[in-house]
What we know:
CATH superfamily: Vaccinia Virus protein VP39
Largest sheet: 7 strands, mixed
Bound molecules: S-adenosylmethionine
Radius of gyration: 17 Å
CATH architecture: 3-Layer(aba) Sandwich
Number of domains: 1
Number of helices: 11
CATH topology: Rossmann fold
Distance between the termini: 36 Å
Helix content: 25-40%
Order of helices and strands: HHHHEHEHEEHEHEHHHE
Structural class: alpha/beta
Amino acid sequence: MTGKIEDHYSGGGSLAARIAEDLRAKGLESSSLTPADFSALDEFHFRGRAATLELAAQMRLTAQSKALDIGSGLGGVSRTLAETAGCHVTGLDLTPELCAAAAEISTWLGLTDKTDFMQGDATELPFADNSFDAAITVHVAMNIPAKDRMYAEARRVLRPGSVFAVYDILQGGGGGMIFPAPWAAEPSISHLATPQEMETLLCQAGFKLLDSIESTAESLRWLEERTAGTGPPPPVPITTRLLFGEGFKQMVQNQLRTLRERRMLTWSFLCEA
Ligand SMILES: C[S@@+](CC[C@H](N)C(=O)[O-])C[C@H]1O[C@@H](n2cnc3c(N)ncnc32)[C@H](O)[C@@H]1O
């Protein structure tokens, strides 16, 4: 028995097998691909891999770092950090189906020694205090009402002085969300904070705020280019649409409108533990 969030993200099940099948159908061999090739599928957030690379550059990662990716999904963010910094990344996600597919994709890409994926809840991390040298969370908190517990847990497992990078979808002043959204088909699993609430939550969890950056205009441009087909084509023609099928079209239209009307914002916060 799974919960509503896991059901929302499970994509009808057998994800890894379906991705492998799609690749074969398009004449592609999974073992000949790179992490960047999967980015239209496994970097499930606005501005994809480019946004992850921007955050990674601020995380003070070295090849010796042990990093945590909270809400790792299909593992794209974890693999981008592991590949570019040479560090080890543990991805944790609530949805078992996504954890299994993330581990499988890392096997295809030869990144099993640099990444591992486990099922777990961001509000109850199964790690000892001071276990990690850096942490990241990308487009996850909008599913989590207890953000105070989520950030307190991130602070607890981070070594003092290390960086916590947060990139999320926030509530703007333009009105309520329009559903279905990619993170929630209906309102009961959608919990957006405002930028001010985020800053308060992060500081109350014990983080020092180093920087906060709004990227709503860039996110809108990125989505408009993708839907109009004027942006760069996906490296491999398999995208997050695979998770949601035909329903994805309506989600994208709703996202365009909520970004244009500033109902929805994208922001990053760089924090020090
Ligand atoms: C939009 S996806 C983003 C995945 C990934 N961070 C990325 O950017 O590609 C949101 C993810 O948050 C996960 N999630 C939601 N609530 C969670 C929780 N309480 N603990 C851990 N993961 C959670 C979902 O299972 C899903 O994989």
